[in-house]
Amino acid sequence: MPIIDNFSRISAIPRESGNEEGVRRFLLGWAKEQGLKAQKDETGNVFIYCPATKGFENVPTLALQGHMDMVCVKTDESKHDFTKDPIELVIKGDMLSAKDTSLGADNGIGIATIMELFSDKSLEHGPLEGILTISEETGLNGVYGLDTSMVHARKLINLDSEEEGLIYIGCAGGNDIRANAEKPMYKATEKMSGLSIAVHGLLGGHSGGEIHKQRANAIKTMARLLFAISEVSPVFIGSMEGGTRRNVIPSSCTAEFLVPTEFLFCVKEAFEKEAAKIRNEYRFTDPAMAIELDSAVVNEAWSDEDSLNLIKTLFMVPHGVQAYSFAIPGIVETSCNLATISLKGGKLFIQTSQRSNIDSANEEISNRVSLILGLTADVVFFNHYPAWAPDPDNELAKLCAKVWKESTGKDATITAIHAGLECGILNSRIEGLESISIGPDMADVHSVNEHVSISSVNRIYEFLKSLISTIR
């Protein structure tokens, strides 16, 4: 399994977003071993050039593109250190996953596929370019800073998609929001009792590719629980932690708070009633959900007024699908992900991510979220990226669909995706570029349950070989 072997070598190198130096050195060294020209730009992106085989020198250059970084999440029990430890791969039958961490198949499998294509001496092809970007997962920084003078191709295949047989010709644009606040902390009194709530065991997942699956959001779950408690007792929040990344549906959240001791019985009763409702609602989408209330030592907390404002704000912030597309039936048009929260020592930090295939709809949902968050905190917009508008006349997509049918005997589906892809930015920055995005079957990316089908990886590779040899 050459591609899996390549992926194993990549997985041995820490490559969390912002820490791509090791994998960059590896890829530049690998290219040198293969006798291929390779270079990096000032941003840190890597370009690898594979010359045409004899007789194919006049074929138009084709680019294959992916990103080097990965989203790093782990189980609560894991001791894994993403700054130095290799990802421990697990193979069970046809499925490749990781032990107690995210796998990084997004987008390590794409990089491993490019490596195999560029080293396959049996493949006849025109000039090929590998474009390997940094920090895609934390704001598409690499592709925004890409030195476009190093790109000669005007046809590009992005290998960052997650469903075999789909050919993407469009994607959502996005806006992220950060909200910050600092409130005074007050000492606990003898008449107060400390409590903690832990929400964990949720499936989480990619906030673009899996938002439609209606999985529970741990931060929203916490907001519901605290809101139910606030209806029977004053609440004084001391700390809260939830979520990991802007593009990950939060799978866990914890909070520590104070309540007047005289209300303890009512608080526990309200908690149990609300927890039972939530477990019932998500019994199919999040069967392993755990919601626990325990005593805790809480020495200081926000005032009950500031705490209630925060609870109401989190309760009101939208999460999940906001609209489905009429242009391409079946895909999400607009969504919101309440992604992270951190409240420590009186300082609050919240992050949300909004997506839409229509830029004006993205602006509307982002403005709505900012108004709600503004009730509690100062709000800043950042990391805007444009939607990639589908082009029904995309000739590369048509060729892909034709070769897919010939290679597999199955029809491909040309469509758009709700997740953000680098193609939109590349198309806006490189005049005349025609792009598509494809990939093998993988699921639960950006989570500890991430896995990919090995046979699907191999089918995508064989298809790419056929496609590349067809381009004239």
Would you give an account of this structure?
The protein is 29% helix and 28% strand. The chain contains eleven helices and 23 strands. It has helices spanning 2-11, 21-33, 105-119, 141-144, 218-230, 264-281, 304-316, 359-373, 395-408, 423-429, 454-470, and strands at 37-40, 46-50, 62-67, 89-92, 95-98, 128-133, 155-158, 166-171, 173-182, 186-187, 192-200, 236-242, 253-260, 290-295, 300-301, 320-324, 332-344, 347-356, 378-385, 413-417, 434-437, 442-443, 451-453. Strands 9, 11, 12, 13, 14, 16, 17, 18 and 19 form a nine-stranded antiparallel β-sheet that branches. A six-stranded mixed β-sheet has the order 1-2-6-3-7-21. Strands 4-5-23-22 form a four-stranded antiparallel β-sheet. The longest helix is centred in the middle third of the chain and has 18 residues, at 264-281. The protein is elongated, with a radius of gyration of 24 Å. The mean pLDDT is 95.
